[in-house]
Amino acid sequence: MFDICHTCRRCFNLCDSFPRLFDLIDESDTGELDSVDSVDFKHVINACALCNMCYMTKCPYVPPHEFNIDFPKLMLRYRAVQHRAGETGWAQAQLAQTDRNGKLARPVAPLANWASREGNGLTRPLLEAAAGVHREAVLPRFHGKTFTARAAEQPLEINRDAPAHGRKAVLYATCFVNYNNPSIGLATRAVLAKNGVETEIHYPTCCGMPQLEHGDLEAVAARARKVADALVPWIDKGYDIIALVPSCALMLKIEWPLILPDDGAIAKLAAATRDIAEYVVDIDRKEGLTPGLAAIDGGVTLHLACHARAQNIGPKARDLLALIPDADIEVIERCSGHGGSWGFMADNFEIALKVGKPVARSAAQSNKPYIASECPLSASHIIQGMDKLSEQAAQTPAPIHPIELFAMAYGIDPKEWPCQPSVK
To answer: What is the pTM of this model?
Structure first.
């Protein structure tokens, strides 16, 4: 496969795997793959962020072509072999335990956020030395109260006059929304309630994307079965499933069925799962939305997240925001460079910024008051890239999720759903 990629080179401007691969072969004794030691492939494989964009947007040799190329899946298989050989680092494995980390940080959220905040000259160098997390990388903040807890305390009245009244959906909270950004979940509940959708909130466990990045397929399969056991009974009751983060939607829809192809519950869950933007756009197209949307002043720069694009559902975040009257949307359809936890690491952070620089530059040039992305990690990474391009970092807008903008357009009081993490 590497020989085909070296000959083609269409992916030269995606992640750093491809420049590394091309340089590795070009600088070999013969300039061809036959003189490259396979030990050196690891440097190429470690740069893959599993964004799937080479497969989705560039490669001419994906199925049904006879070459049957799937670059990210081959990288994943290599990592699975590494993991089984015990080569996953201890620190990497601990960072991937998002549920445990969220539960431990929740009671001491202000202290955890102080310690993890970039610029903390006391704790961040220690974190870099101990766990390999770059001292300048913006890390997710923790909340003292999870999304599931907040939702249980704040029942919402369902709009029974809405055209879509009668729909029912389970919100799969995801680890990020539950522990790090409850605002996304609360805004989603408010928008759906206004449109007559009855919602239930469930969070059995993390989808396993952090483990997938390290090739721990057994752990991913165990999480898939646990989530399916919890959510499939709701499907049987007539509920749709909505994943609040595109990486998690990708796992439920595509990655889990590939790992567990013979599991009927996994297949049933995959068929019932929707991305949140996909779901609201479907309401508009089938029943119609509740009236009341108003224009948002100043416009929005919208980044289409790679894992949303990898679902092959079209630019649903753009379609969502286009439903807002007089929508002024500038779309950026390019990888932010972050790649999940990959972009946090000291070995990758500068590369992540380099890959995402065109996105940060486009966002800065758009000069709009809102920077939105379906992927919260990508949004923060773009903002950090914009800060590094400008000395006027204080003027950089805060990142926001498209569903939060949609709630604002409905006039839903932001005080009803945003949750700012506290810092000691």
So the answer is: 0.91
